[in-house]
Amino acid sequence: MKYKLLAFDSNYDSLLAEDLLTKKGIDIDPIPIPRNLRKDCNLGLKIKVEDLNRVKSALAGKIQYDIYDY
Questions:
Q1: Where is the Putative Se/S carrier protein-like domain (predicted)?
Q2: From residue 1, how far is each of 4, 13, 39, 46, 50 by CA, in Å?
Q3: Distance from the CA of 22 to the CA of which of 15, 38, 58, 62 falls in 20 to 30 A?
Q4: Which residue segment(s) compose the domain that 44 sits in?
Q5: Residue 34 sits in a domain of what CATH number?
């Protein structure tokens, strides 16, 4: 299975995204962000590639994030 990693600017954004995505029924896995990808937040969300469009829709206009292959 292929995954994507969402990285956020702050821990608050990461926790908010986790809450929003969980409420939408999207499977997520909170994980530590690798040092080379970190900004000011050390918590990221691992998602399935097939959920990426649902994630983008759920977070659009609410939270800024970067997406990386995982």
A1: 5-61
A2: 10, 26, 27, 12, 10
A3: 38
A4: 3-69
A5: 3.30.70.120
Distance of CA 36 to CAs 20, 55, 62, 65, 70, Å?
A: 26, 23, 25, 15, 13
Number of compact structural domains in the chain = 1
Across 9-18, 31-40, 53-62, least confident range:
31-40
DSSP three-state, residue 47: strand
pLDDT at 13 over 80: yes
Nearest to 63 by CA among 8, 25, 4: 8
Distance CA 17, CA 35 (A): 20
pLDDT of residue 54: 98
Q: Please give the single-letter amino acid code of residue 16.
A: L
